[in-house]
Amino acid sequence: MILPTWFPSRSDSASGLRLLSKAQGSEEDTLGAAATTPAAEWLTVNSRGSFAMGTIDRCPRRKYHGLLTVREPGVGEPLNMVAEVEEWLTIGDQRVALHSYNWGNTVEPNGVDYLNRFEPLPRWTYEFGGVTFTRELWLEDDADAVWIRYTIEGLSEPADLRLRPLIRCRPIHELTVANPFMNGELDVEDGESLRVAMHPYKNVPALITSLHGAPGVFRPDGHWYEGVHYEWERERGYEDAEDLFTPGEFRLEVDHDRAFCLRLGTTPAASHEPQVLSSVLGSRRSFVQELDDAADAYLVELSGDRTGVIAGYPWFGEWGRDSLIALPGLCLARNDVDRALAILESLADRLVNGLVPNIPQSGDVPPNAESIDASLLFIRATALTAKRTRSRRLTALQEVCLDLIERIGGGADPRVHVDAQGFLLVDHGPWALTWMDALVDGWPVTPRQGYAVDLNALWLSGLTTALRWAKKLRPAFREKWGETAKKLSDHFEERFWLQDQGFLTDTHDGNHPDGRLRPNQLWALSLPGVPIDKAHKKRALAAVREKLLTRVGLRTLSPDDPGYQPFYRGGQSERDRAYHQGTVWPWLLGLYADAVEAIEGPQAATEEMIPVLASLSAHLRTEGCIGQISEVFDGDAPHRPGGAPAQAWSVAEVLRVAKMASP
């Protein structure tokens, strides 16, 4: 079971909501008062990558918020199956609802008014008329099912409770409208547990809902809720209104304090007994331990015995580049070498034209091959894994690395060439083959064609490593590529060093450098086998430190640059224009810390990272998706988080840095 973490105690002035902590730190250990609003998100996942996600106040603000999104439904993209389960509680002549919806011009009901406490298991504790009503939620680890456990305490008279599921059963990125194609036919079985099954659409899994641990009845009254609005989708420039279907409601008469469960899943429950989630309430956790918990959300076992990495929640799937950047932190820093090998083997089994794709094949979803750095990152990840194990499984992976170099050199991607001096050259055109891959109107926002410093640093380091392996595995490889590596090494600094500016240029068109200060040069400053003069390394690091380093990550462009975008917000084209033009990415801290350690020593890296880690610790505990690290932050202070609220390489590289800085 993967449990999100908690955050420091703090009262919210609007609702009196108490937010409890299992983390070290004081109430002041936050990034700001707004961080603890009930709009903060929570996330819980299972080992399959299926997930539930929402906000503390239970008012859905994204189309992705819901209680069950199935990662691999067997057809197409992930399916958002269950939106919500409403609770209507009546005691005497008073009736309250504990959920919320935005109807476009009003929010009602306002269940948050009764919310006394939230703990990111997730667990909600409501107070009403002297009664304490607790709602806990988790996913089964080996099945696509969500359990909701209810506890009622303090009853002095019978209570009437009605539980109403609201369903979507639609692809994760789409919205549902009321339609005649919904199959509302129900199969109700009242045995050891009350079970209601429906198969709402063809080619999607059935939805089976069952009540455990308490007697009840189900009253069908299938109808649509029309016009639920998601405000964050509107802010992001997307359609924001959706209709939800309810098949009916479970009715319970509760005459004494008790606990019971509702389960919703694509398969029946294995047991009729109500489930109990083992809790770690009250324990104190270090930042590293919290990041360890967060990391588990991204490591998944997928169909076909594939071990994979989910790049981020809620809208990302398995990405090659992201997996390989995250692998050192998610696996190697946590001494999980077997998982690292399995991830590499899974990617090696799904090459496209002999190269590692940006997005690998998954079920009937085709791959995306718009990447050249993924193949180079595969070589790096294999080399880092080889430092941790002598497993015989490495030999096959090292052979794959030699093949990748042969394929790149042979023009497997016709847009990428090896020139006479051994450099990787990317043709000019409407593509973006590095991690700075945002496109607007079909053209890259951050053109990195020609000679990119990160591609060539990874290429040179990869060649150096591969030549060492080839001595035993493939002697002919050394004869073919040894001279290429030597020429590239001899000319690398000459191509990229900017003497007047004191740093490495980001790209070079063959005649002129672009002269922009970006963090991609950190690959050249930190990777083994890339020859840069020590004095030049110090100057370049100082430039990056002065202009790019922030308390939550590194900017993607110097604020002095005319193209700098200080904020990441607005519609998709606005956000894409800012994505790599100043926006801060926390995963870059790993590269930065590696460069500081290589140039100034481990003690300097530790001392510099401690205040940055403190800021990110506050972020993890108090804002965005509680217990996770966001994908990006604004370039300008106060560095508001944005993008996916839970991102694999953000968590992985911050965890790796935190472990580097730990005593």
The structural class is: alpha+beta
Low-confidence runs of at least 5 consecutive residues: 1-35
What is the residue-averaged pLDDT?
A: 92
**Spatial strand sequence of the major β-sheet:** 1-9-10-11-12-19-16-15-14
Helix content: 25-40%
Number of helices: 14
Q: Report the radius of gyration as a whole number of Å.
A: 26 Å
Strand content: 25-35%
CATH hierarchy: architecture of the largest domain: Distorted Sandwich
Describe the sheet with the most strands.
9 strands, mixed
Instruction: Indicate the CATH topology of the largest domain.
Output: Beta-galactosidase, Chain A, domain 5
User: What is the total domain count?
Assistant: 3
| CATH class (first level) name of the largest domain | Mainly Beta
State the end-to-end distance.
29 Å
Based on CA inertia axes, which overall geometry fits?
elongated
Q: How many strand elements? A: 36
Notes on the protein architecture:
The chain has 663 residues and is of the alpha+beta class. It has three domains: 18-265, Beta-galactosidase, Chain A, domain 5; 286-388, no CATH class; 548-663, no CATH class. The chain is 28% helix and 26% strand. The chain has a nine-stranded mixed sheet with strand order 1-9-10-11-12-19-16-15-14, with no helix packed on it. Strands 2, 3, 4, 5, 6, 13, 17 and 18 form an eight-stranded antiparallel sheet that branches. It has a three-stranded antiparallel sheet with strand order 31-32-33. A hairpin with a 4-residue loop joins β28 (497-498) and β29 (503-504). The longest helix has 22 residues, at 475-496. Mean pLDDT is 92; it is low at 1-35.
